Recover the amino acids of this structure.
C-alpha cells in the first residue's frame, strides 16, 4: 500500500490555484498580478537563507512555484 504524503499541502495548493483562476476569470486580478504573486512567493523561498534548517524545503517550494509559472497552471494564458 502506498503512503500518502502531504495531503493538506496538496489540497491547499489545489485550492489556491483554483482561487487564482477564479480571480482572473472574474477580472478581479489581471494575469500580470497573479504572475507577480507567484513570482514573489517563489523569490521568497529562493532567497531564504535556510537558517531554519529547511533550506532543501525552500528550494523545492521555489522550484514548484516556478514550475507552476512556467506551465501556466494558475493563469489561463491567452
Amino acid at each position: 500500500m502506498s503512503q500518502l504524503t502531504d495531503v493538506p499541502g496538496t489540497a491547499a495548493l489545489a485550492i489556491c490555484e483554483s482561487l487564482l483562476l477564479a480571480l482572473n476569470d472574474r477580472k478581479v486580478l489581471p494575469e500580470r498580478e497573479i504572475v507577480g504573486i507567484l513570482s514573489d512567493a517563489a523569490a521568497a523561498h529562493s532567497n531564504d537563507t535556510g537558517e531554519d534548517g529547511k533550506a532543501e524545503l525552500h528550494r523545492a517550494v521555489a522550484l514548484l512555484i516556478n514550475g507552476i509559472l512556467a506551465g501556466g497552471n494558475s493563469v489561463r494564458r491567452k
In short: The first helix runs from residue 7 to 25. The chain has three helices and no strands. The mean pLDDT is 88. Residues 7-71 form one domain.
